[in-house]
Amino acid sequence: MFAIRTMGVVIALSTTAAFAGDQTQLRADELSRNFDLTRAQVIADFQAARAAGQIVQGDAVVLRPDETSTQSTVTRAAVIADYQAAREAGLIVSGD
User: Fold this and answer.
1) Are 86 and 92 in contact (CB under 8 A)?
2) What is the DSSP string of 9-63?
3) Domain total for the chain?
4) Distance CA 10, CA 3 (A)
5) Which one-letter DSSP state was computed for residue 64?
6) Is the pTM above the cut of 0.70?
7) Could you tell me if 53 and 64 are in contact, meaning their C-beta atoms sit under 8 angstroms apart?
8) What are the tens digits of pLDDT across the range 56-91?
9) How far is 4 from 89, CA to CA, in rounded Å?
10) How confident is the model at residue 20 (pLDDT cuts 50, 70, 90)?
11) Cβ(96)–Cβ(87) under 8 Å?
12) 20: in domain
């Protein structure tokens, strides 16, 4: 019983340590060099970005439909022909 509890603690600590190092660093080209903005201007910029949907809320990144929808330029017949050519060339693995 003690070994199981100990393993649980070890797993929890190692998981915590793995996620602790997962912090995004800013690159130098991403930093703003404009230091003469007033507090009101910064707040106004933030509110405008939030209204435009450019600010991520929480951990999940939810994309708007216009950011994810794309129109394919390849026809269905072309996709089927590519698949059949790849299968005949032995590039598609099937089975075990």
Assistant:
1) yes
2) HHHHHHHHHHHHT--PPPPGGGS-------HHHHHHHHHHHHHTT-SPPSS----
3) 1
4) 10
5) -
6) no
7) yes
8) 776 666 666 776 767 788 999 999 999 999 989 988
9) 51
10) low
11) no
12) no
Would 26 be classed as within a structural domain? no
Tokens of 33: 């060099």
Q: Yes or no: say if 68 and 62 are a contact pair by the CB < 8 Å rule.
A: no
The SS3 assignment for 84 reads: helix
Residue at 25 is within a domain: no
The position carrying tokens 């950011």 is 67
Compute and round to an integer the Cα radius of gyration of the chain: 25
pLDDT higher at 64 or 40: 40
**Is 12 domain-assigned?**
no
| Residue 24 tokens, joined | 């995004």
88: tokens are 């005949």
Whether 21 and 30 have beta carbons less than 8 Å apart is answered as no
DSSP 92: S
Under 8 Å between Cβ of 46 and 55: yes
State phi, psi for 44 to the nearest 5 degrees: -65, -40
